[in-house]
Amino acid sequence: MNMQTTSRLTAAETALIEAFNDQIGELPGNGAVTALRDRLLDDLKQAGLPTRRVEAWHYTDLKNLLRTVPPQAGDAGSEAADALVSGSVVLPVIQGRANPRPVANGLDVSAYSERLSDGSAAAGLDALGTDDAIGRINGSFVRDGYVVGLPEETELGKPLEIQLIHAGGEAHTRLPVSFGKGVKATVIERHLSVTGDAALVSHVSDIVVGEGTELTWIILQQQGAEDTHLGQIRVDLGAGARLKLFVINAGGKLVRQEMHIKVTGEGADLTLRGINLLGGDTHTDVTMVLGHNVPNTGSTDIIRNVVFDRARGVFQGMIRVAPDAQKTDARMACNTLLMSDDAEFSVKPELEIFADDVQCGHGATVADIDDNHLYYLMSRGIPENKARAMLVNAFVAEIVEELEDEALVEALEGVISAWLEKHA
């Protein structure tokens, strides 16, 4: 990134620096953590927020899109929401602060603020590189979250739901989770706004998936209409592990969701599914960097997008196959429905292949509702608006139905249907 002087900082960049100076005395952390926070904030100050000139941010000019920074989130008296799936174990983070409680199934749970205070969080707090604006912001400001461990051979009968609830203001959270060998679990990472007050939210989930583990991880983003959501998930996928990663964006004014996935164990497999529901004048960017680093691994990535009004969306997908990663099988597809002449969606698929015995491919489609399908429904007495909503719902429901948990499928279909009823 180009270096810049303080005089060229935008209002949002200046507000971030001032917020850091106001908060640094009360942010949890020992000397090592505080020094790391200082460096991350200084890097942000010197480089500024990324612009279109930064390749990884070419479609999301954060420097211009992020106009204001709200004050630090206060205690608004919010409470945990009802679980998405009845019977789930719920761990709430309210206004950026964790609320540890006794949990079942032998889960090891503690507050992330404790790791910051004793310095053990310093090793994983750094940014991923010079272009990692989310890592810099989160590392500078993060206050709390959960540290979760699942011992070997643990099987969760019900989902574990981590609720990240806010009522406006700044909230920065982190979620390191480690899964031992042979674990079977479903985790819902749910971001939920409960007011109309503007918020700036950053969140990083750092996940280690042990050998032979079968994990379903769902990111459900339901931020408010004026909120900025900067999310990142970092995954290390071990030998023989199976990860189903579902990302559903159904809210937010400005959204950037990054996925950084390293396949480091032979025989591992990734299933990535994404649904982006975009309306109004929102901007949503989903960026994936997937590295196949060992032989005999696979991945299938399918992203479905529905774009109304003047909304803008982006999917950037990079698959890197290392020289030693022979027998890799990696597929990527992005399908978009543009429901308005003013809607936009940009797709940037990339493959970097350094092995010669692989099967890799990508594809993208952009379309409107099929007129024949629409006519068929309308000819049977269904009003046009309802017929369009039914076809759109079918377009995205196909993705959700890949989940094996009927209660979870029903809950997510309810979220999607409610969004479509509001926007379609």
As a whole number of angstroms, the C-alpha radius of gyration is: 21 Å
Cα separation of the termini: 40 Å
Helix content: 10-25%
Query: Which spans have pLDDT < 50 for at least 5 consecutive residues?
Result: 1-7
The tally of beta strands, per DSSP, is: 19
The strands making up the biggest β-sheet line up spatially as: 2-1-5-7-9-11-13-15-17-19
Number of helices: 8
Task: Quickly describe the structure.
By secondary structure, the chain is of the alpha/beta class.
Please describe what this structure looks like:
- The chain has 424 residues and is an alpha/beta fold.
- Helices cover 22% and strands 39% of the residues.
- The chain has eight helices and 19 strands.
- The protein has helices at residues 11-23, 31-47, 62-65, 112-118, 133-141, 371-378, 384-400, 406-423, and strands at 89-94, 97-98, 108-111, 144-150, 160-166, 169-179, 184-193, 199-209, 214-222, 228-237, 242-249, 254-263, 269-278, 283-292, 298-307, 312-321, 329-338, 344-353, 359-367.
- The strands form two sheets. The protein has a ten-stranded mixed β-sheet with strand order 2-1-5-7-9-11-13-15-17-19, covered by helices on one side. Strands 3-4-6-8-10-12-14-16-18 form a nine-stranded mixed β-sheet.
- Strand 1 (89-94) and strand 2 form a beta hairpin.
- Helix 2 crosses helix 5 and helix 6 crosses helix 7.
- The chain is globular.
- The model is unreliable at 1-7 (pLDDT under 50).
